[in-house]
Amino acid sequence: PVANTTSVVFKLRGRLAQNYKLRPHEYSKGIDSSGNLIVVNTNEDINSLLHRLMRYGTNCAVCTPVAIKEQMKELLDKTIANYS
Length: 84
What we know:
- Helices cover 37% and strands 25% of the residues.
- By secondary structure, the chain is of the alpha+beta class.
- Strands 2-3-1-4 form a 4-stranded antiparallel sheet.
- The chain starts with 7 loop residues before the first strand and ends with a helix.
């Protein structure tokens, strides 16, 4: 597992990108060329963060670090397995 003090960068798409309210431990790196909001989360428990980001469905993607992307993928794979 990755330490809970890791900064996580994620991007938000569509209406979520337009309406997202930054949390106290987050800041925006701006809008990319595709209109996605790039957010840096600096101090949220990784498990809590990943579960929250899962709620955003296809409108959210973890960008970095790679270890957190892999952790998110494993969480999604386990979720999908529940429906197999």
